[in-house]
Amino acid sequence: MDKKTKKNGLRFYFRIYRKILAQDLKSKMSYRADFIISTIGMLFTNISGFITFWILFQNFPSINGWGYYEMMFLYGFSLVSLTPVQCLFDNNWQLRIHVYSGDFIKYCFRPINLFFYFQSEVFDIKGLGQMAFGIGTLTYAWCHIDVPFSALMLLKLIVFMITASLIMIALQTAAAATCFWIQNSFYVLDLVFRFKDYAKYPVTIFSPVFRFVFTFLMPIAFIAYYPSLVILRPDAVPILSWLSPIVGIVFFVISYKIWMYGALKYSGTGS
After folding, report:
1. In this structure, are residues 271 and 265 in contact, taking their beta carbons and an 8 Å threshold?
2. Cα 46 to Cα 30: distance, rounded to the nearest angstrom
3. Distance separating alpha carbons of residues 195 and 74, to the nearest angstrom
4. Per-residue pLDDT for 260 more than 50?
5. Chain-centre distance for alpha carbon 162
6. pLDDT digit string, tens, across residues 84-136
7. Rounded distance, CA 134 to CA 194, Å?
8. CA dist list (Å): 64 to 60, 99, 116, 204
9. pTM of the full structure
10. Is residue 145 a contact partner of residue 232, using CB atoms and an 8 Å limit?
11. What is the pLDDT of residues 181-204, one digit of tens each?
């Protein structure tokens, strides 16, 4: 939390965000056809992933010890975990455009947190459809796995899901921030974003090299695999699963510091 955030207080930022969100939603609703078409497109993308798993398990009873419903649980978990980055941080895709054109300078003169100001300008409402589909997939899978439902389990699910989402937010934020230093930063951001597709698979199905990469270098295993083990395998939870919240928070803080460092060093077109 920087000095501007401390000075204004969280209540101030919630009030500002509510007003910005209202204006952004009004703007999007004025283009209803675009909203409907893009929402349907995202829905079909998620359905195709569901169908892919269904077809796969028509031929194989399990994959490295993971059954159909456990894989569905991972898939639903990853969709819900990725919703915050989809809804709240979608403006990262426009960062390089603002930086290269020089328009980013306008964010530097407002008496509020720079990161908050930039990210709050865009709310991708289509992500709510993704979240609804993910919750539906999670519910469908949970009804078929041998794990009892309880208030404690639900609390664990929510906590680990929130902290898991910080991983993808951190990866995307750090990747987007590379535009402050390199010209072709889109390819960095696009590469990192594409890695999210591997989050819906258990890391144990990959070779040792990729397990290491997906755990310690590009930690997408913390988006769904490790945190979901707290629910799916409650009797044998690995230490990395319990460390998921810490990993998520640490990576988010680091990515925030990188983003802010680049933003505060920004001096206009050509920086």
Report:
1. yes
2. 26
3. 15
4. yes
5. 9
6. 999 999 999 999 999 999 999 988 888 889 999 999 988 988 888 889 899 99
7. 19
8. 10, 45, 42, 7
9. 0.86
10. yes
11. 998 899 999 999 999 889 989 999
What secondary structure does DSSP assign to 148-214, as a single string? ---HHHHHHHHHHHHHHHHHHHHHHHHHHHGGGT-TTHHHHHHHHHHGGGGGGS-GGGS-HHHHHII
pLDDT in tens, 150-183: 999 999 999 999 999 999 999 999 999 999 999 8
Tokens of 23: 């204006």
